Amino acid sequence: MSSQNKGKTADESLLNRILDIVRKEPTYLNYWNAYRRIKKLDLSRLQVDEKKKVRIALLSSFTIDPLAIYLDIESRIAGLYPEIYVSPFNQYPQEILNDESKLYRFNPDLIIIAVHADAILEENFLPKFPTLSENDKKNLQVEIIEYLSGLLSKLTSKTKALILLNNFVAPWFSPLGILDNKVNMGLKEFFQKINQKLADLYRENRQVYMFDIDGLASMHGKIRSINYEMYYRGAFFFSKSFLPVVAREYMGYVKALKNLTRKCIVLDLDNVLWGGVLGEEGFHGIKLGGDPVGRAYVDFQRLLLSYYNRGILLAINSKNNLDEAMKVIQEHPNMVLREKNFAAIRINWRDKAENMLELSDELGIGLDSMVFVDDSPQERERMRQALPEVLVVDLPSSPFRYCQALQSLNDFNMLVLSEEDIRRGEMYYARRKRKQLMKTKKTLEEFLKSLNMTVEIKYANRYTIPRITSLINRTNQFNLTTRRYTQAEVEEMSSHPDKFQIYSLRVTDRFGDEGIVGVAIIKKKIEKWIIDSFLMSCRVIGRKIETAFLAKIVEDAKKNNVLYLIGEYIPTKKNKPASSFYKDHGFEKIYEDEKISRWRLTLKESTIKMPEWVKMKDG
Amino acid sequence: MVNSAEKKLIEILTKVLLLEESEISDELSRDDVEEWDSLAHLMLINELEETFQITINDDDILAIHTIGDLKKVLKKLGVNI
């Protein structure tokens, strides 16, 4: 080992020793200590992967340094290498408006804007509030929103960073007392409405996110979320007990930004999905519904189902007899989660770490995307030791607290959620069922017939174009030309139906809806149509859906009195599976060099038969 | 022998100001310790107030310049050190 490397490892292990103190005892004192010690280290020798770096800027109307401490240390614990910029006290407007400010020179990935209402409103807002007319209040709201949105539009024009704007903490106090919601806009409503309007304003925005500090403060207790000694002495807003709560929520965004998102919850069964040990208590003895403990397990399952319904995969990793456990999952009247909710299942007597590796393999999801939930401290410790990438939940000993433990995780966040993301669980189950069905059928044809496939082919529209664009840019294997287009280009083509026709293909079968899995782009010329792009997700290859797709294009071309259909194949390192596509469908080769081959189907003479096991649904 | 209040005080001083226990003396002042900036000073006060369940008066906060000053204030407030 070179001396340079030795130094590097020494830096890394020193960093880790400092962080260990915080991991063991996460007090503010220890965060402070760790932060200041790390600041003094020279970490320039560490060679850090760009993907692991994160630059966070904090803009605030109050002293926000304590939050910087938390975000720095929490980022490091999450395996990131943060750099944090704290803008000078209450200079956020200058920092945003000045093109040459330190903020812009810092070049942040994430900008947090924490502005307290006091900094925007005039000093005597509170004493005057009971005398303001409804109109005065509405004008004031508009002023505040315009002020903030003005700053934000400057910011978004200057930087690509993700921007988090804190909403306002609606006060728990009103001088109007019990009449606060009897007057036309009370004090609480004044702020709640601003929050709602800001949320509406940025709902569709992909760069600005509203940060719900009001919700967090309510959860924590508004009175407890501020320490008045520290507020008056040093303009600190977040109390010591509130700081970690705020930091954890911000870290949800940081993790989403840096793709540290967990995608799958792997569950034990006994004392996790139901109370008691199935092998001892039996089907009728386990606790699920009914008594208080049983109801807690039902609620925990409901929480898991809510995660499932928004695209988090569920899987089972349990030491049990498979048949007995499956009987509960399939037949127990109080089970909320059923077999179809689990993307993969390992119920056996093997080592759970081995099962976990297999699950990761089967689902095609990295260990660093998995969460493990088990009531046994020994199993948890074993998992931590064997597979440190897996997030092991510290499940409380009482099932009454299970929900809270899972709800406190900030690891499932994504910045955007597509329809396909949301239905991911369903697709994994369908894939498993298809595999099982295939084993029972003698021939491929028999299998395909039994799938009851329906194919829906439609012209691109504004709802499908995002998915179409993503397929165009992600599909490598069954892609005839691998031409990539941006969303703007796809939109442009789609708006010229005289020159282009863009098709999307959606597949449904007896096991579920695969969503849009195929795209074709046709260039229309006089007498001939050229298939500019033709691609299918590898998920559905092997089911002759591509034949159905081509048959539909042929049918449309004939209706338009086109004479020839021209196909192109551009070989790449990855698209071998598509190489004989046109040949297999009766096209004749009319041109070939090392870069491209062209194929022709004469429509007067030939046609392509719709496979009989595919039902067409016209869009 | 150090009692538990003294132990707590030492822990807070070493952790907030990045000191070794052996460096701590009554004469040590804000001028000697690089880390003892205004943020650290407030941090120190806040930690001491919460740990010992006391409120330090604001004139005292400004007047504290050395570890000795700090101890005097704590003793005045009945902390057993």
Helix content of chain B: 55-70%
Low-confidence regions of chain A: none
Radius of gyration from the alpha-carbon trace of chain A, in angstroms: 29 Å
Largest sheet of chain A: 8 strands, mixed
Assembly of the depicted chains: heterodimer
Q: How would the global form of chain A be characterised?
A: globular
Structure description:
The complex is a heterodimer of chains A (619) and B (81). Chain A is α/β, with parallel strands linked by helices and 619 residues long. Helix content of chain A is 42%, strand content 18%. The radius of gyration of chain A is 29 Å and the shape is globular. Chain B is mainly alpha-helical and 81 residues long. Chain B is 56% helix and 0% strand. Chain B has four helices and no strands. In chain B, α1 runs antiparallel to α2. The longest helix of chain B has 15 residues, at 38-52. Chain B is globular and about 30 Å long.
Task: Please give a handful of descriptors for the protein shown.
heterodimer, A: 619 residues, alpha/beta, five-stranded parallel sheet, 25 helices, 18 strands, 42% helix, B: 81 residues, mainly alpha, 4 helices, 56% helix, 0% strand, globular
Summarize the structure.
The complex is a heterodimer of chains A (619) and B (81). Chain A is an alpha/beta fold and 619 residues long. Helix content of chain A is 42%, strand content 18%.
Write the layout of secondary structure elements.
The complex is a heterodimer of chains A (619) and B (81).
Chain A: H1 3-24, H2 28-40, E1 53-60, H3 65-77, E2 81-86, H4 92-97, H5 102-106, E3 110-114, H6 117-120, H7 125-128, H8 134-158, E4 162-166, H9 187-201, E5 208-211, H10 213-220, H11 228-234, H12 243-257, E6 264-267, H13 278-281, H14 292-308, E7 313-319, H15 322-331, E8 342-348, H16 352-363, E9 370-373, H17 377-386, E10 391-392, H18 402-407, H19 419-422, H20 424-440, H21 444-450, E11 453-459, H22 465-474, H23 487-494, E12 500-509, E13 512-524, E14 528-536, H24 545-559, E15 564-569, H25 581-584, E16 588-592, E17 597-602, E18 614-618
Chain B: H1 4-17, H2 38-52, H3 58-63, H4 67-76
